[in-house]
Every structure is written in C-alpha cells, then in structure tokens.
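Hi everyone, sorry if this is the wrong subforum. Our group has a chain we'd like a structural model of before ordering constructs, and none of us has done structure prediction before. Sequence below.
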Amino acid sequence: MHVMSMSQSNRRSHSNNLPVSIIFVLYQSKTMLSLSSISNACRSPRQKVGYHLSTLMERGLVLCDPDKKKYGLQPCLRDLSLIEKLSPLVEAITGAVDITQTNMPVSEIVFNVLEYYLQLHIVEA
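Answer:
Right subforum, don't worry. Here is the predicted structure as tokens:
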C-alpha cells in the first residue's frame, strides 16, 4: 500500500519528534501499515522507525499484527470525542503555565502536567 508522505507544514512540525511523526502517519492511514510504508511516509530510515515503533508498542500506543508485520494505532487515539474532551483541558493548562522560571517549552510543561494528573488519577482509582 502506498501512503502519502506528510504535508510540508506537518512534516516541519513533527520533524524533531519521530515518534509523533509515526503516530501522525498511522492516524492518517485507515489500514495497518508495514515498517517500509511508515518509514517512507516519515522520510526516516527503517531502523530508526523500527526502534521508535518498538517503544510506542511498549507504551501501548501502537499495535502490531505479528503475522502480517503491520502496525496500527491504538483505537482510542482515533476517537475524536476523546480529543474534543481533552482539548479544553490542554488549553486551560497551557494558559495557566508559568514559564518565568524555566527554559522548558510550554508544550513540554503541558505534557508533564498531564502525565502527573494521569498518574494521580490512576493512583486514586
């Protein structure tokens, strides 16, 4: 199967983060993809993509059909209703972040805050 590579603007925004690029490619695809298809779409070497796919699978974000050697996205990452529920929270955290005492990018702080909230929620559950 041929997968179109990411658009110029999306490639630029994900270029420094290959795992995000892989997730983006899998999100765009309606079917599971081979390692070759993913690496071609990301314009990255197969070895690098394979390494990151393994990590994403360990984290439960990517699923693999071992018989077909194809990869797909965790179904909950395709659920637009979940994204719609998460967006206001991300926007609220982004607006409340204090960057006066750090050199860390706001996006990284938001990620860390969300991770902390999730860990607290899981502990309390």
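For your construct planning: The CA atoms of residues 31 and 72 lie 7 Å apart. Residues 79-124 form one domain.
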